[in-house]
Design goal:
Distance between the termini of chain B: 21 Å
Radius of gyration of chain B: 24 Å
Structural class of chain B: mainly alpha
Shape of chain B: globular
Chains: A mainly alpha, B mainly alpha, C alpha+beta
Order of helices and strands of chain C: HHHEEEHEEEEEE
Oligomer: heterotrimer
Largest sheet of chain B: 2 strands, antiparallel
Order of helices and strands of chain B: HHHEHEEEHHHEEHH
Chain lengths: ~425, ~290, ~190
């Protein structure tokens, strides 16, 4: 995978035998033990490991829940209730899985914003980043499909509303949108047939995510990790072996994260959900306030900010798709926002916009809320389409340290014109 | 771990702040609007909260003598009344109770192929008086008394706070483990029957309730002033509207979440374990990194 | 701490303690995932069931469901009881009664039934070989060489007290815990 020389030496005859045939131990050693990680990584870099944990936790709890869940319109709600009441530790497993989806998104958003701040999407990590965007999309699809399964009121109406987004395509070719929606439903309304196929897909997609994650980690190990300075690893002193250094740090962060996770699972199992989902699905009554889960709220706000049906749907999907293009939209000569005195402010404004959109998504789409949703939606797109290229071109970055080691040891930045020019960090560099 | 260390001061500060903001709301809002719902002291609230067995027993009595005439509790089985963490009635008492339960279980087919009604067993659900929603509506003038098995989890208190207080309120609820919105609502509803204010148009057959959305509820006041049931001498409380409402709400909270006791006990063990392990890992990490400046 | 500057000391007490704690936590998390596959509270609650035996005439048998398994209840004739009583226990392939109401007792006919209700033979109707259901409950069934039950899967013969007499089955048919609530009302489990 990566370009550092293998230091693996089989210690026994058996290990040697394996190494000559299927060198999995060598790969594990080179990639996860001896792999050089920048010595200056902060705790924001622990979220990759945390996300791997989240994925595995969701897979394992999900497989176990599927042993008790019944995907039919008549039994789905009852079977979830049965899991919580009667299955041994069912209340725990169900809560782990439901809360786990929120924790997964919490971690993935922190991970994404870390990448945005430190320019982890810049060359040579474009494919790594785009794979991340695909993982985010697949996670959203999985979460949406999974939310339908308890077959409560929110489940049912979330499925109805979100699948109906596709009906906006009727504006492009009359009948096409309706055709797609009925194809998704397997009928003329959301029904048990829909639930059954959603269950099947909900079981499938996590394995697709798993595959994408393997590619994501592969790409990471080819390019190497970014770090707070955005500089490449140049000498041996810039890095430490993954084990025990990065592993020890990841472990601390993982347990702290699990603390938050367990807090919700054990003390607030319903906090991240919605009371209406404890009422069985009723196709005749829509709950008065339907809101998606918190992690979809910013996108929901963007959808409702656009006064046109098709336009809203396009804007919502574009909000995610645009992420795939930022490796080329960002024109700055340096990676890390740390060295970007102007862009820094825009970054925090962008973060604020996302949080504001999240808040607005939870409010009714009326009056002042729509006004602000439009403002922040406009900024969301302007940030990528205008701020990234323009600020990147006109801004003069602060002087970069000579190397990761210099940054850690606090050596003063190299003088302009001498040593490493500011732009060097952006250029891929071979050791 | 920094998050944990800041819990105590932060919690009280936030609580104070939120109280400041919330107490401004009037006790009963004008017609058509839902009044502010207060938070109550529940034995099962917060991190250490557990159900009070005597309260659950009294609450079951209220359910049985008042609510059960219209509302089913079908996700709860008679056997649950015996299990740990609930009212913990003894086995024989519940068997006798099941045998006397007014609503029989339909079973069958028997050897002649006919369906029949029989007395409930321990493994049977606590059945309501109606066969189905249609029958309930036809008898109740179109209203449907819902099953109460999940009612406290299916209701919540919606606090309309300004945007700037939204985050501190959220943090307070998370840090203090507030999960009793449904119970607070139930209690408010049961004690919220009032004279309709002047000028409020009450539809025929409806009753005014300060806390019900729209303020018009089909259910007549179930627990009168002074209480609806006679508690036994040793029940641990005197019957009154407030006491009955509180007890039956606690019982319904248990019915909706019977694993709460076990969950919170496990919660403490897990939290303690995670704090210790995270600290240990942190010191191990420091030890490992002590050889490298970073 | 005097540690090697280049290579951190991995046997450091804090590091060992932290790793051990993490490992114990991970290990104890396995239990809920294993235990969830055990019979749930609902299934456990169905552990006992009551049946009315009044319609079962002498010489007839009924099959009822208990914990998802068939239970054979046979109203035995005097002749059948007599035949079963006359078999010496030492001649039986399995000398134990396999009766949950009196575990460990020898497989006499009396020990295979309940005192005062010897005419009723109550057994889990599952062959102790590999779990098939033996024939012998209806009049038309083959009852095997000993007039009781015959398992068609691999040819095990049971006698009129449900004891294995010939064939690959290792044990007598199991007798579940049961009590008589009245002369004709039985509770199994």
């Amino acid at each position: 995978m990566s370009n550092h020389a293998s230091t693996y030496e089989p210690k026994s005859a058996t290990a040697k035998w394996w190494d000559e045939r299927l060198p999995v131990p060598r790969m594990m050693h080179d990639q996860f033990v001896d792999f050089p990680t920048p010595r200056n990584l902060n705790y924001l870099w622990t979220f990759g490991g945390i996300l791997t944990f989240c994925l595995v936790a969701q897979l394992v709890t999900g497989i176990v829940l599927a042993m008790h869940y019944v995907p039919s319109a008549d039994d789905a709600f009852n079977s979830v209730d049965h899991i919580r009441r009667d299955v041994n530790y069912g209340w725990l497993l169900q809560s782990l899985h439901a809360t786990g989806s929120s924790m997964f998104f919490l971690a993935v958003y922190i991970h994404t914003f870390r990448g945005l701040y430190y320019g982890s999407y810049r060359a040579p990590r474009e494919i790594l980043w785009i794979l991340g965007v695909f993982i985010l999309l697949a996670m959203m699809a999985t979460a949406f499909l999974g939310y339908s399964l308890p077959w409560g009121q929110m489940s049912f109406w979330a499925v109805t509303v979100i699948t109906n987004l596709f009906s906006s395509l009727d504006a492009v070719i009359p009948g096409m949108g309706t055709g797609i929606v009925e194809w998704l439903w397997g009928g003329y309304a959301v029904s048990g047939t829909t639930l059954n196929r959603f269950f099947s897909l909900h079981y499938l997609l996590p394995f697709v995510i798993f595959g994408l994650v393997i590619l994501h980690i592969w790409a990471l190990h080819v390019a190497g990790q970014n770090n707070p300075t955005g500089l490449n690893i140049k000498t041996k002193s810039d890095s430490v072996p993954m084990y025990p250094y990065a592993v020890a740090k990841d472990a601390v962060a993982l347990f702290a994260f699990v603390f938050v996770f367990a807090w919700f699972v054990l003390f607030l199992p319903d906090y991240l959900g919605h009371a209406d989902n404890f009422i069985e699905a009723n196709p005749l009554v829509t709950p008065p306030h339907i809101v998606p889960e918190w992690y979809f709220l910013p996108f929901y706000a963007i959808l409702r900010a656009i006064p046109d049906k098709l336009g809203g749907v396009i804007a919502m999907f574009a909000a995610i798709a645009i992420l795939a293009f930022i490796p080329w939209l960002d024109r700055s000569p340096v990676r890390s926002t740390k060295y970007r005195p102007i862009y820094k402010w825009f970054f925090w404004l962008f973060l604020f916009s996302c949080l504001a959109l999240g808040y607005l998504g939870s409010k009714p789409a009326e009056g002042i809320y729509v006004f602000w949703a439009r403002i922040f939606t406009a900024y969301y797109f302007a940030h990528f389409l205008l701020v990234m290229p323009i600020v990147g071109s006109i801004e003069t970055p602060r002087k970069l340290p000579g190397s990761i080691t210099d940054a850690v040891l606090g050596k003063s930045p190299v003088r302009a014109g001498g040593g490493v020019p500011a732009g060097a960090a952006a250029a891929p560099e071979d050791r | 771990m920094t998050a944990y260390r800041t819990v105590v001061p932060l919690r009280s500060a936030l609580a104070a702040l939120a109280t400041l903001v919330c107490t401004g709301a009037p006790a009963i809002a004008a017609g058509g609007e839902v009044a502010h719902i207060d938070r109550h002291e529940w034995s099962f609230a917060g991190f250490g909260g557990q159900y009070d067995r005597n309260q659950l027993r009294r609450g079951f009595q209220v359910y049985k003598e008042v609510c059960a005439s219209c509302h089913a509790l079908e996700r709860v089985k008679f056997r649950n009344l015996v299990q740990k963490g609930g009212p913990e009635f003894d086995d024989e008492a519940v068997k006798a109770l099941a045998a006397e339960w007014p609503n029989q279980i339909s079973d069958g087919p028997n050897d002649e192929g006919a369906m029949f009604e029989r007395v409930p067993k321990l493994s049977d659900k606590i059945k309501g008086p109606y066969k189905n929603e249609q029958e309930a509506r036809s008898i109740q003038n179109g209203a449907y008394p819902p099953d109460l098995s999940l009612i406290t989890r299916a209701r919540s208190v919606h606090n309309e706070a300004s945007w700037y207080i939204h985050v501190p309120m959220m943090m307070r609820d998370i840090l203090t483990g507030y999960a009793e919105g449904g119970a607070d609502y139930m209690y408010a509803l049961l004690t919220g029957y009032k004279e309709a204010p002047e000028g409020f148009h009450l539809a025929e057959g409806m009753n005014y309730n300060a806390y019900f959305p729209g303020n018009q509820i089909a259910m007549i006041q179930p627990i009168p002033e002074g209480g609806a049931v006679e508690y036994q001498e040793n029940a641990g409380a005197k019957s009154s509207l407030e006491q009955n409402a509180k007890d039956v709400t606690a019982f319904l909270a248990w019915a909706a979440d019977p694993s709460l006791n076990e969950r919170k006990q496990l919660g403490w063990t897990v939290m303690l374990y995670l704090i210790i392990t995270t600290l240990l890992l942190y010191f191990a990490k420091k030890r490992i990194w002590s050889r490298v400046k970073h | 701490m005097t540690a090697d500057v280049e290579e951190p000391n991995r046997r450091d007490i804090v590091v060992v303690a932290a790793s051990a704690f993490a490992a114990v936590g991970a290990a104890s998390l396995i239990w809920p995932f294993v235990h969830q596959m055990n019979p749930d509270a609902g299934a456990q609650a169905l552990a006992s069931a009551e049946f009315d035996l009044s319609p079962v005439q002498e010489g007839q048998a009924i099959t009822v469901m208990w914990r998802g398994k068939p239970v054979f209840i046979r109203h035995r004739t005097a002749a059948e009881i007599e035949t079963a009583k006359n078999v010496p226990v030492e001649e039986l392939p399995d000398p134990l009664s396999r009766n949950e109401n009196q575990p460990g007792t020898p497989a006499t006919d009396a020990n295979r039934t309940l005192e005062g209700h010897e005419k009723w033979l109550v057994m889990v109707g599952i062959c102790t070989h590999l779990g098939c259901i033996p024939k012998g409950q209806t009049l038309a069934d083959a009852k095997g060489d000993f007039g009781g039950w015959f398992c068609p899967c691999h040819g095990s013969h049971y006698d009129t007290a449900g004891r294995i007499r010939k064939g690959p089955a290792p044990r007598n048919l199991d007798i579940p815990p049961y009590t008589f609530l009245s002369d004709t009302k039985i509770r199994i489990g």
